[in-house]
Structure formats: structure tokens, C-alpha cells
Amino acid sequence: MAESVAVPKELLKNLYKWLVEVEEVLATLEELMDKEGLERIRRAEEEYRRGDYVIVENSEEIKRLIE
Predict the structure, then answer these.
(1) Does the pLDDT at position 20 exceed 90?
(2) In this structure, what DSSP letter does residue 38 have?
(3) What is the pTM of this model?
């Protein structure tokens, strides 16, 4: 039996992208199933409608706003 297998890079890239997409769907479903998570989503949507949000370019801006 072979101890290694050659896998095309393109196949690995596609598998990785698919795995990331599945993880995002599962995280969304988990948030929607959680009562508190659903409330956070509703509040965030309301804040968005009111324009109560800040756009940042990088993580340093986020740190500055949180502090």
C-alpha cells in the first residue's frame, strides 16, 4: 500500500474553499438557533437601518474604537 498520494493543487484549493463555505453556513445556523444570537442579529439590523455603524479599514481602527 502506498504511503503517500499526489493530489492536484486545484483540487485542494476547491476542497478548502468548500470547507470554508460549509463552516460559514454552520456558524450562521448556530447563531440563528440561539435565542440571544437571533436578538443580536435583530439589533444589528436595526442599527444598520438607522445608520448607527462605523466602517473601518483595518484591525487597528477596531482596537482604537473599542478602547
Answers:
(1) yes
(2) H
(3) 0.53
